[in-house]
Design a protein that fits this description.
Blueprint lengths: L5 E6 L3 H10 L7 E6 L2 H10 L4 E5 L7 H11 L4 E6 L4 H7 L5 E4 L4 H12 L4 H11 L6 E2 L1 H12 L5 H8 L3 H11 L13 H8 L1 H11 L3 E2 L6 H21 L5 H9 L3 H9 L1 H8 L5 H12 L3 H11 L4 H8 L12 H16 L8 H6 L3 H11 L6
Parallel strand pairs: 1-2, 1-3, 3-4, 4-5, 6-7
Helix pairs in contact: 2-3, 3-4, 6-17, 7-8, 8-10, 9-10, 12-13, 12-19, 13-18, 14-15, 14-17, 15-16, 17-18, 18-19, 19-21
Length: 390
């Protein structure tokens, strides 16, 4: 996508809806190239002329419905961010569309929400880097889970005796399942209209019956991945859990759900690399020894770090900004937006502790001081070494 202006395609069979969107977004023409198209067939013709950064489609359209259209977009231009607007469509239609969607918004959608969703989907101004990230994540509709945990979840979902507490407890053990659940519940269609970072609350909002239907009908969760990654996935799961427990323990009670979720998801970019470029990721993992080596290697091999890729995926999936920032900056919290620096610093320190094992964690104290977080570090370190904290 060589054009410096981002391209956005709006698709709806109702000309009045398209006219309203065109008018409401008129001031955004200074920064975006926007095309408004009546129906999926005309939209596919536009896509054949050139790709779009974001494609926004209605669900109910004659001929080719939104689910079929966005699946075609996924195949044709996988780097396009795909957003669906839906009113009171049948649940079966919506669930059928889920694998093709990055976000699902309720129709009618207020223009502030729509504009914010587009902005979060577009990324930065570095078109080359953004293009490489979107190539990596464009076809990622779910993240892999260790097979034993996946089958445990499927058994819980199929059992009428399982409770929301049982399901929530299992989901908090795995980054892949947790990320997908939070994507679903932070959509305006399935959620409450308010962003949530709480995994237990996400299960409660969806409810066991809806979660069961979505999981078993749309296959939104998956077990394993190509290659020999079974042991590595369990290690990533365990490491992420330990980091999450530390960050949660260090947080104020009101912030613990957010800290836990952000820490659990901080390394989801590794799952993306392993899923879409398994041979290169395995070769890279076999030759790096330090975190800095790993980050440099990722930039060389993939054109982006796992932090870049994980954060962009979660942003496109509509997760809360605090989680996205924590994932993006967990190796450099001093670069995070001010509102996210303490949370991101917690994850940075917790990650260093977990990876150091019995050795002293390697921390950039001067940089943490510049981030305004150095005053908390000693108390975090002390708490981490109390029995039961790590």
């Amino acid at each position: 996508m060589s054009n410096a202006r981002k391209r956005i395609l709006f698709v709806d069979d109702d000309p009045d809806v398209l006219g309203g969107l065109r008018h409401a977004l008129s001031k955004d023409r200074r920064r975006w190239d926007m095309v408004f198209v009546p129906g999926a067939r005309s939209a596919l013709d536009e896509i054949h002329k050139g790709p779009f950064d974001v494609v926004i489609s209605d669900m109910r359209m004659p001929g080719i419905d939104g689910a079929t259209f966005l699946n075609a977009v996924k195949l044709e231009t996988p780097a396009s961010v795909r957003i669906m607007l839906s009113g009171h469509a049948d649940r079966e239609l919506i669930v059928r569309a889920l694998p093709a969607l990055h976000q699902l918004l309720t129709k009618p959608c207020d223009i502030t929400t729509l504009r914010a969703t587009i902005e979060r989907s577009l990324g930065g101004v570095d078109l080359v880097r953004d293009g490489k990230i979107l190539e990596l994540i464009g076809n990622v509709d779910r993240l892999p889970t260790p097979p034993d945990l996946y089958f445990d979840l499927m058994r819980l979902l199929q059992s009428p005796a399982s409770s929301m507490g049982d399901i929530g407890k299992l989901i908090t053990r795995d980054p892949g399942i947790a990320a997908k659940l939070l994507q679903l519940v932070n959509s305006s269609y399935f959620g409450t209209g308010h962003k949530t970072s709480s995994i237990q609350q996400a299960v409660s909002v969806l409810g066991t019956e809806a979660l069961r239907f979505i999981a078993l009908t749309a296959s939104v969760f998956t077990a394993g991945m190509p290659g020999q990654y079974g042991l590595w996935m369990h290690e990533l799961q365990e490491t992420s859990m330990r980091v999450a427990r530390l960050a949660c323990a260090w947080s104020a009670p009101a912030d613990r759900d957010e800290a836990f979720a952000a820490a659990l998801l901080h390394d989801v970019g590794h799952l993306v690399f392993a899923l879409v470029r398994p041979a290169e990721f395995r070769e890279l993992n076999g030759r790096v020894e330090t975190t800095q080596d790993a980050l440099s290697g990722e930039l060389s091999v993939f054109g982006a770090s796992h932090a870049d890729v994980g954060a962009r995926l979660l942003a496109i999936w509509g997760l809360p900004v605090a989680i996205v920032d924590a994932v993006q900056f967990h190796h450099a919290p001093w670069e995070a937006p001010e509102a996210s620096r303490k949370l991101t610093s917690m994850i940075y320190v917790a990650d260093a502790i977990v990876h150091a094992g019995t050795a002293a964690p390697q921390l950039d104290r001067p940089a943490l001081d510049r981030a305004g977080c150095a005053a908390w570090v000693d108390s975090w370190l002390a708490a981490a070494h109390r029995p039961g904290e790590a």
